[in-house]
Amino acid sequence: MLDVSREDVVARIDRVVEDLLKSAGCTQPPVDAIDLARRHLGMVVCLDRSQQNRGRAQRNRAGRLIYLRPESLPERHQWTVAHEIGEHLRPRLLEALGLASSTPTLGESLANLFAFRLLVPTCWFAEDARLLDYQLPELKRRYSTASHEVIAWRMLDLPQPCVITVVDNEHITKRRSNAWQVTRKLVAAERTCLEYVHQYSRARRVQADGWTVYGWPVHRPDWKREILRSVFEE
Fold first, then answer.
1. C-alpha–C-alpha distance, residues 43 and 59, integer Å
2. CA separation for the pair 37, 65 (Å, rounded)
């Protein structure tokens, strides 16, 4: 992002999020992005069954409109609206970054970063994650408008080193770390944990070879997702 470091970008986005939540009177999770858009920002959010994509924003003389297609998971609507709030506040974000203009790629990156931090604000999440021992089910109950995946990825923004892996229908779809170089290949403890969680649809902790791996099921009748958080104890 030009001459601005990622650390500066996320720190300034966090400040914009904190200011927004404070001005809206939101003092604790969960953050309802739809209510925030409607009540505090005067945006119009409505369902449109003709929508092919998850969400679409449009401007008119009355303000900004967000059309949502019907979804089975309310978290998808929350993400769409949080993202569109980020687009709506892009001038404020760019001003906070000291940037006068934006490329389309930069704007999209800012909106995504904003959405993650609006649904799971750093000002609360850092302490909550520590107090709840980084347990995804407990954090999901507290940050109920965010998806399991969004909450898991936010763990990578915390100082505690870890690896986050998302597995969909027995295929690794995403795997990232905030400390180590990783590949798609799981270590033995991760494979053992994943096999148990996938088969029994129950959370599991496995320790082996210096690794502690926590696995959680996010299972639906038509889809099996598992999320792993792996920590290496040197």
1. 10
2. 10
Distances from the Cα of 186 to the Cα of 70, 115, 182, angstroms: 36, 29, 9
Determine the length of the chain. 234
Does some domain include residue 1? no
Residue identified by tokens 């009540």 is 39
What residues make up the domain containing 134?
124-232
User: How many angstroms separate the CA atoms of 72 and 23, rounded?
Assistant: 31
> How many domains does the chain divide into?
2
Q: Which residues contact 141 (CB under 8 A, 6 or more apart)?
A: none
- Specify whether 100 is located in the same domain as 146: no
Q: What pLDDT, on the 0 to 100 scale, is given for residue 35? A: 96
Per DSSP, which regions of 50-203 are E strands? 55-60, 63-68, 163-168, 171-177
* DSSP structural state of residue 89: T
Q: Is the pTM of this model over 0.85?
A: yes
Separation between Cα atoms, residue 123 and residue 13, nearest integer Å: 12
